Structure formats: C-alpha cells, structure tokens
C-alpha cells in the first residue's frame, strides 16, 4: 500500500534520524528495499509485468537515499525472479514461497532468501 504524502514525509524523517546515528558511528547506512507480497507474486499470477506506478515510491526513496548519502539496495527483481523460477503445481507448496501464506511478512525461507540476496549484493559491491 502506498503511503500518503504526510506519512511518506514522516517515514523519510525517521530514516534521516537513523542516518544521523550512522553518521555519529561513522558507518555507511544501507536502505534495503523490496516490494510487497502481492507485487512479488503479480507476474507469476497474471503473466504480466508490474505496472510502472508500482515503482513510484521506490523511485522517491532511491532519490532520497542518493541525496542523503544512503546506499540504496533494491532486491525486488531478485524476489520476483525467485518466484518465477519456482516449479509449482496445483497444490502450491507454500513452504517454497518467500512470504507467509496468510499475511505479508516474510516466511522463514523468505528471511533466508532476503539475507542471502543482501549478502550477495554487498559482496558484489565490495569486489
């Protein structure tokens, strides 16, 4: 769900507070972004690419991060590709999906997938 302008501004102000802490600690802040469950499964379910409007919030966050010297790491496409590669039958094996069956939180496997994606992306940056 997209945030209202007021809530989005509040969200960005909270991110600025976290960035200030990272500045005090002399560390590089990394903002990890990925789309929600329904958008992650959209292409698999519909056979269509995501509409461009889905990425509006992402674009604003990325611009904010660039302006505030925050490293922006988006793993949305990686999650979509993971879901697209799954071999699923009519009885879908929900244990292979990155989000829980009944809510929008990551599943135990989803947490592993996200952690691995972050580690691999950071290794690529370091090289």
How would you describe this structure to a colleague?
- This protein is mostly helical and 127 residues long.
- Helices cover 56% and strands 6% of the residues.
- It is built from five helices and two strands.
- A two-stranded parallel ribbon has the order 1-2.
- α2 packs across α4 (76-85).
- The longest helix is centred in the N-terminal third of the chain and has 20 residues, at 5-24.
- The protein is globular.
- It starts with a helix and ends with a helix.
- The model has no long low-confidence stretch (mean pLDDT 89).
Whole-number mean pLDDT: 89
> How many helices in DSSP terms?
5
The structure class reads: mainly alpha
Strand line-up of the largest beta sheet: 1-2
Cα radius of gyration in angstroms: 16 Å
So what's the overall shape? globular
Main β sheet profile? 2 strands, parallel
Measured as a percent range, the helix fraction is 55-70%
One letter per element, helices H and strands E, the order comes to HEHHEHH
């Amino acid at each position: 769900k997209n945030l209202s302008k007021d809530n989005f501004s509040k969200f960005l102000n909270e991110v600025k507070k976290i960035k200030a802490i990272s500045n005090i600690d002399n560390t590089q802040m990394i903002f990890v972004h990925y789309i929600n469950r329904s958008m992650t499964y959209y292409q698999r379910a519909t056979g269509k690419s995501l509409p461009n409007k889905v990425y509006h919030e992402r674009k604003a966050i990325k611009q904010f991060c660039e302006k505030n010297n925050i490293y922006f790491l988006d793993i949305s496409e990686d999650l979509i590709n993971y879901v697209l590669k799954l071999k699923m039958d009519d009885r879908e094996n929900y244990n292979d999906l990155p989000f829980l069956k009944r809510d929008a939180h990551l599943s135990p496997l989803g947490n592993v997938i996200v952690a691995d994606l972050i580690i691999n992306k950071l290794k690529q940056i370091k090289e």
